[in-house]
Amino acid sequence: MSGIKLYHFGVSGPSRGALLAARALGVPIEVEQVDLFKKEQLKGRISEINPQHCVPTLDDNGFVLWESRAIACYLADKYGKDDQLYPRDLQRRAFVNQRLYFDSSSLYVKIRAICFPILFLGVKEIVPSLKDDLNATLAFLEQFLTGSRWVAGDNYTIADTSIYASLSSILAVGWDISSFPNIQRWVKDCAVLPGFEENQEGAKLFGEAVKKNLK
Ligand SMILES: N[C@@H](CCC(=O)N[C@@H](CS)C(=O)NCC(=O)O)C(=O)O
């Protein structure tokens, strides 16, 4: 099982999502740092193997894959010791997939809409309509966590690692989740995820980068 490499940047939520899934699965992965602030994604091997030159990018002994949630699904199917993190049962898997798509098409998108312009386009404040938009999406997450310890059932799955990687970025910016008690409880529970501290370090850097650009 040698030669599994992840091109990674800890500041990036998607990149942390793939790594958190790998850590939860116990995949022995070699992490190569790609500093996006130094445009390292446009140089070296990642630029040769991934025409989209984005992190995370996985190279599993020559099999190259990007898109964080696709990476998490692949690693779980190939290296998962059992199907706890990505169930094989069709309906349970569909449920996990639904949460993963919720993250990729809604939660992460709303967080990016707020933070990207602050990080890279000179925007100095959180646009109120975008704030409302993210809170409306968090209200759905709050609902998912009603009567369910984890986002897709009784045990944590790659839906939790993906969603936590996204959410931890905006929490590090100082987002107020006091009106979402289920999310608050789940965030505390996520401390048991293997790789949690490593994720926190990257999220902290993300939060600092955003906050230093706010007026
Ligand atoms: N949907 C993708 C998002 C990947 C993505 O946008 N990565 C950004 C960092 S958050 C990146 O590498 N940007 C550098 C570039 O595109 O050149 C995923 O989940 O992996």
Shape: globular
* Helical percentage: 55-70%
Reported for the largest beta sheet, the result is: 4 strands, mixed
Rg for CA atoms: 17 Å
User: What is the distance, rounded to the nearest whole angstrom, between the alpha carbons of the first and last residues?
Assistant: 48 Å
Number of helices: 8
Q: What is the highest CATH level, the class of the largest domain?
A: Mainly Alpha
Ligand identities: glutathione
CATH topology of the largest domain: Glutathione S-transferase Yfyf (Class Pi), Chain A, domain 2
Give the low-pLDDT segments: none
* Class computed from helices, strands and strand pairing: alpha+beta
As for the number of domains, it is 2
Q: Tell me how many strands there are.
A: 4
The overall pLDDT average reads 97
**What is the name of the CATH architecture of the largest domain?**
Up-down Bundle
Order of helices and strands: EHEHEEHHHHHH
Q: Which strands sit side by side, in order, in the main sheet? A: 2-1-3-4
What is the strand content? 5-15%
Question: Can you put this structure into words, describing what you see?
Answer:
With 215 residues, the protein is α+β, with helices and mostly antiparallel strands. It has two domains: 4-79, 3-Layer(aba) Sandwich (Glutaredoxin), CATH 3.40.30.10; 90-211, Up-down Bundle (Glutathione S-transferase Yfyf (Class Pi), Chain A, domain 2). It has eight helices and four strands, in the order E-H-E-H-E-E-H-H-H-H-H-H. It has helices at residues 13-25, 44-49, 68-79, 90-120, 128-144, 158-173, 181-189, 196-211; strands spanning 4-8, 30-33, 57-60, 63-66. Strands 2-1-3-4 form a four-stranded mixed β-sheet, with helices on one face. The termini are far apart. The mean pLDDT is 97. The protein binds glutathione. Glutathione (GSH) is lined by residues 12, 14, 36, 41, 53-56, 66-68, 104.
